């Protein structure tokens, strides 16, 4: 995704990314009336149109128009498609992920997969490509979250299979596969990457909530609770840790949990959130795993969330 | 000579694993193969216990069934499965996997190690400061690898391993898993236990003073 930023016109970038239509495009101003509000963000100007929507221009040239948008004090964001927003601020422009897409990325990074493979079809007589984006969980609530986020971001409802105890859901879509693959959400069976360059602070919190719902742990110890994040993939886990640091948390260094055998050693990596930041974790990140929510409630750190994402819903 | 074929991918069902393992064994088991080790590793998300269960057999026909059972056993307890694999060996490596101590001896070893770790923690500046400010007890937490060797009528040997930082949690989890392994007919009785820790590598990563207690967490720094 990032490689397409700044190359070619917005209309072309859009077409390249999704190949399914173009954003509303004025090209020329065409006599539309502008409402009074003009906001400057760096070299960009954002105008609210009397016909509804916004027009974005740079150096007097209109570079795009959008049906909707949200103007914050320090930026403006326009929805593109598939859970991607265009953020315009004094720092320039970038594509960012909506909280829903960020959370979906976190879920897939922890307990999901994004696969592409060929299989020879005897009936057809040639190789057929398969694209699947998957998620597995023993919790129906997390499966429903995966379904809801997939529908919100891609307008696709995952199919389910598997027995009681471990539910599995998948989307078969080339478009979804490539969109997530471009972001590096899942780079191997156990490897993942966090597209931090495409996450604002809300997106980072949503990503972490998704990831933590899968590979996080809240456990009761003799003297209170422990909050840990696990992964086999040390580099990916370091990115998770870095994302916590970006948000002002102070996670521990990464440690190893070792399975010692006569013939080999297996290592799972983890880091923890310090006890002093548990309350803040509950308020800003939270989890959607029912057992986590139960334990956070027990910790007496329930946060009533007014935002659509990023904390525990009650 | 060793080989580690891939018999499991995330999202594979136990039934699919059985089919893949059968094919793998048919292709790879040779006259010189003396033993097969099949293992599953994962983490119980509810109890925060990591585990590893391995079965050793010299009967190629039993391998697919063991692989299927191990995945089913791991997934049934609501766990994250990290790996399910097998190794074919030309020697009986299971002879080296001997864990025959009784649980009382293991607990005594654990207590001795805890005392040692508490003394080490007391040398830490943050702990010293907490004690100077009125804290009375130092409580240390560090990973415990508890291994259990089991006898089996269907396999040469079954080994269970649980890892957590609380002894009671680790023992209770392993005892429950042993019962589930027995109920599936994979093992008949416990032969013994063993505690594994690399004390030299453990380092303090968090200190939290709370009332009378100073809690100290130790872990193995990532290499």
SSE layout:
The complex is a heterodimer of chains A (314) and B (223).
Chain A lengths: L9 H9 L15 E8 L2 E6 L4 E5 L2 E6 L3 E3 L2 E5 L4 E6 L2 E6 L1 H13 E10 L4 E12 L2 H15 L4 E3 L5 E5 L2 H10 L17 H15 E6 L2 E8 L2 H13 L8 E6 L4 E9 L4 H7 L5 H9 L16
Antiparallel strand pairs in A: 1-2, 2-3, 3-4, 5-6, 6-7, 7-8, 9-10, 10-12, 11-12, 13-14, 14-16, 15-16
Helix pairs in contact in A: 2-3, 2-5, 5-6
Chain B lengths: L13 H15 L6 E10 L4 E9 L5 H14 L2 E11 L13 H20 L2 H8 L4 E6 L1 E8 L5 E8 L2 H17 L5 E8 L6 E8 L2 E9 L2
Parallel strand pairs in B: 4-9
Antiparallel strand pairs in B: 1-2, 1-3, 2-6, 5-6, 5-7, 8-9
Helix pairs in contact in B: 1-2
Explain what this protein looks like in three dimensions.
The complex is a heterodimer of chains A (314) and B (223). With 314 residues, chain A is α+β, with helices and mostly antiparallel strands. Chain A has two domains: 24-95, no CATH class; 101-297, Homing endonucleases (Endonuclease I-creI). Chain A contains eight helices and 16 strands. Chain A has helices spanning 10-18, 99-111, 140-154, 174-183, 201-215, 234-246, 278-284, 290-298; strands at 34-41, 44-49, 54-58, 61-66, 70-72, 75-79, 84-89, 92-97, 112-121, 126-137, 159-161, 167-171, 216-221, 224-231, 255-260, 265-273. In chain A, the strands form four sheets. Chain A has a four-stranded antiparallel β-sheet with strand order 1-2-3-4, with no helix packed on it. Chain B has 223 residues and is of the alpha+beta class. Chain B has five helices and nine strands; from the N terminus they run αββαβααβββαβββ. Chain B has helices at residues 14-28, 63-76, 103-122, 125-132, 167-183; strands at residues 35-44, 49-57, 79-89, 137-142, 144-151, 157-164, 189-196, 203-210, 213-221. Chain B has a six-stranded antiparallel β-sheet with strand order 3-1-2-6-5-7. In chain B, strands 4-9-8 form a three-stranded mixed β-sheet, covered by helices on one side. The radius of gyration of chain B is 20 Å and the shape is elongated. The model of chain B has no long low-confidence stretch (mean pLDDT 92). Classes of the chains: A alpha+beta (314), B alpha+beta (223). At the A-B interface, β13, β14, β15 and β16 of A face β1, β2, β3, β8 and β9 of B.
């Amino acid at each position: 995704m990032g490689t397409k930023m700044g190359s070619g016109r917005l209309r072309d970038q859009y077409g390249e990314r999704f190949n399914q239509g173009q954003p509303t495009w004025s090209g020329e101003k065409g006599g539309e009336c502008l409402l009074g509000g003009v906001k400057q963000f760096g070299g960009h100007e954002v105008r609210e149109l009397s016909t509804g929507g916004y027009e974005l221009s740079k150096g007097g040239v209109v570079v795009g128009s959008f049906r909707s948008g949200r103007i914050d004090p320090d930026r403006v964001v326009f929805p593109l498609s598939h859970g991607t927003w265009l953020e315009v601020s004094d720092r320039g422009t970038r594509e960012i992920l909506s909280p829903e897409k960020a959370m979906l990325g976190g879920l897939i990074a922890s307990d999901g997969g994004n696969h592409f493979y060929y299989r020879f079809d005897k009936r057809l007589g040639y190789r057929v490509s398969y694209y699947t984006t998957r998620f597995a969980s023993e919790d129906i609530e997390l499966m429903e979250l995966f379904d809801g986020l997939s529908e919100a971001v891609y307008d696709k409802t995952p199919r389910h299979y598997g027995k009681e105890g471990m539910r599995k859901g998948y989307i078969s879509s080339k478009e979804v596969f490539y969109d997530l693959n471009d972001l590096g959400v899942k780079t191997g069976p156990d490897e993942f990457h966090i597209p931090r360059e495409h996450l604002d602070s809300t997106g980072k919190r949503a990503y972490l909530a998704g990831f933590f719902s899968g590979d996080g742990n809240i456990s009761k110890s003799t003297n209170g609770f422990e909050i840990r994040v696990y992964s086999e993939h040390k580099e990916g886990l370091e990115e998770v840790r870095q994302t916590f640091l970006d948000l002002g948390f102070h996670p521990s260094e990464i440690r190893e949990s070792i399975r010692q055998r006569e013939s080999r050693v297996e290592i799972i990596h983890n880091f923890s959130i310090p006890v002093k930041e548990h309350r803040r974790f509950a308020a800003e990140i939270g989890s959607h795993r029912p057992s986590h929510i139960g334990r956070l409630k027990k910790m007496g750190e329930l946060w009533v969330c007014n935002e659509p994402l990023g904390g525990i819903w009650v | 000579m060793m080989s580690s074929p891939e018999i499991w991918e995330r999202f594979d069902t136990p039934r699919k694993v059985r089919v893949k393992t059968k094919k793998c064994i048919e292709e790879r088991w040779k006259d010189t193969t003396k033993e097969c080790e099949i293992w599953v590793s994962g983490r119980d998300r509810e109890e925060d216990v990591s585990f590893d269960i391995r079965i050793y057999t010299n009967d190629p026909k039993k391998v697919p069934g063991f692989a299927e059972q191990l995945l089913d056993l791991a997934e049934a307890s609501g766990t994250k499965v990290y790996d399910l694999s097998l190794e074919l060996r030309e020697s009986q490596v299971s002879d080296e996997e001997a864990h025959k101590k009784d649980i009382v001896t293991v607990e005594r070893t654990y207590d001795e190690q805890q005392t040692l770790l508490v003394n080490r923690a007391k040398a830490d500046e943050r702990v010293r400061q907490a004690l100077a400010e009125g804290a009375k007890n130092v409580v240390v937490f560090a990973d415990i690898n508890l291994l259990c060797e089991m006898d089996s009528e269907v396999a040469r040997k079954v080994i269970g391993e649980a890892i957590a930082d609380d002894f009671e949690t680790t023992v209770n989890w392993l005892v429950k898993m042993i019962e589930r392994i027995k109920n599936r007919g994979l093992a008949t009785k416990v032969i013994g236990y063993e505690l594994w820790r690399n004390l030299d590598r453990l380092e303090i990563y968090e200190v939290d003073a709370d009332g009378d207690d100073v809690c100290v967490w130790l872990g193995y720094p990532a290499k």
